[in-house]
């Protein structure tokens, strides 16, 4: 009898809900009042047999707690609703929602570059942004007082350290030196990172930018390996059918050296502003690692050879997104940044 009543009332309590204070008060009087159901049930309980008492006692207590807990939680709710009403707030209005952030376009492009080279077995290597002369210049075959050092306008920090003047690195080739000094061939790595050059800030130049350089050193590495690696990279990044061409160039740390152009990604070679109506755009410098550089890093240049390349991430991003002003990358304007949403987490 008693058990049945409790089951029935339990269902009623569970189903009950309101955010009106007066309805809640009715609930309180009905169940928890001095003449309420719980009081009645407890009175009835006094009359049951001692065996029944043992099992029913627990059920009864739980029932009472349920009624009290329900009352308390609805009381909090009605209070919030009342305060909201008093202050003119409408809690039924939809919430304001918040925007999910976006990755920086340079981070997106760097990630894409890293993923492509990962597929070819290149690992990622990193190094310090504050470098000494040895790692940024001398080990890379830039002779002392040689005009090649002026190719990269350097921000110097301190004159004369143990390994020469301290400066902000002008390229991540310094990481290649650190890697070769610290290990043994074969090396197959890319070096993404920020680099600094003392240039007046404009739409086309900035005092810092981002690079990905790459290095592959092993026995019998040839210029053909370099070409095929970079060709594969470009097909992956800009799509199949993108053409490449190599033009002879000069870097102190590579011999022979080249600059690589690709068919313009914007006009597909027809001619546009981006490619200055030539159909081609330059995207990177590369070459076979100069034997002097290998020897400077303690590697036997008779046994080993290698290739290296380096590109600016901003440039690669421009050719993907047609961003005309370099300054946008570092101004942190949310209207610019949020255009480059991605499904990549
Ligand atoms: N370090 C060169 C630069 O910053 C790029 C480069 C790297 C060129 C490796 C050739 C080989 O301009």
From TrEMBL:
Keywords: Aminoacyl-tRNA synthetase, ATP-binding, Cytoplasm, Ligase, Magnesium, Metal-binding, Nucleotide-binding, Protein biosynthesis
Domain Aminoacyl-transfer RNA synthetases class-II family profile: 109-319
Coiled-coil segments: none
Stated family: Belongs to the class-II aminoacyl-tRNA synthetase family. Phe-tRNA synthetase alpha subunit type 1 subfamily.
Localization of this protein: Cytoplasm
Lineage: Bacteria, Pseudomonadati, Bacteroidota, Sphingobacteriia, Sphingobacteriales
Gene: pheS
Protein name: Phenylalanine--tRNA ligase alpha subunit
Catalyzed reactions: tRNA(Phe) + L-phenylalanine + ATP = L-phenylalanyl-tRNA(Phe) + AMP + diphosphate + H(+)
GO cellular component labels: cytoplasm
One GO MF term attached to the UniProt entry: ATP binding
A GO BP annotation: phenylalanyl-tRNA aminoacylation
Cofactor: Mg(2+)
UniProt remark on cofactor binding: Binds 2 magnesium ions per tetramer.
């Amino acid at each position: 009898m008693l058990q049945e009543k409790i089951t029935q009332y339990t269902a009623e309590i569970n189903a009950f809900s309101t955010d009106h204070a007066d309805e809640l008060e009715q609930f309180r009087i009905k169940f928890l009042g001095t003449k309420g159901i719980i009081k009645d049930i407890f009175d009835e309980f006094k009359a049951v047999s001692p065996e029944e008492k043992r099992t029913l006692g627990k059920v009864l207590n739980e029932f009472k707690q349920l009624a009290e807990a329900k009352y308390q939680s609805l009381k909090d709710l009605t209070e919030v609703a009342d305060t909201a009403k008093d202050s003119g707030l409408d809690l039924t209005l939809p919430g304001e929602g918040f925007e999910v952030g976006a990755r920086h376009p340079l981070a997106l492009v760097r990630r894409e570059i890293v993923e492509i080279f990962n597929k070819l077995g290149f690992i990622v290597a990193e190094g310090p942004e504050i470098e000494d002369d040895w790692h940024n210049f001398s080990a890379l075959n830039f002779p002392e007082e040689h005009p090649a050092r002026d190719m990269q306008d350097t921000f110097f920090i301190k004159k004369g350290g143990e390994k020469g003047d301290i400066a902000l690195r002008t390229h991540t080739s310094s990481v290649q030196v650190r890697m070769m000094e610290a290990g043994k061939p074969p090396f197959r790595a890319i070096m993404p990172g920020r680099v600094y050059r003392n240039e007046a800030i404009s739409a086309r130049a900035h005092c810092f930018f981002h690079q990905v350089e790459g290095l592959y050193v092993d026995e019998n590495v040839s210029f053909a390996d370099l070409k095929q690696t970079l060709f594969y990279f470009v097909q992956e990044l800009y799509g199949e059918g993108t053409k490449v061409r190599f033009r002879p160039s000069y870097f102190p740390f590579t011999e022979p050296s080249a600059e690589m152009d690709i068919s313009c990604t914007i006009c597909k070679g027809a001619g546009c502003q981006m490619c200055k109506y030539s159909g081609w755009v330059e995207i990177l410098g590369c070459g076979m690692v100069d034997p002097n550089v290998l020897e400077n890093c303690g590697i036997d240049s008779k046994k080993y050879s290698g290739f290296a390349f380096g590109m600016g991430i901003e440039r690669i991003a421009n050719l993907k997104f047609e961003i005309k002003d370099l300054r946008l990358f570092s101004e942190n304007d949310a209207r610019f940044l949020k255009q480059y949403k991605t499904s990549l987490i």
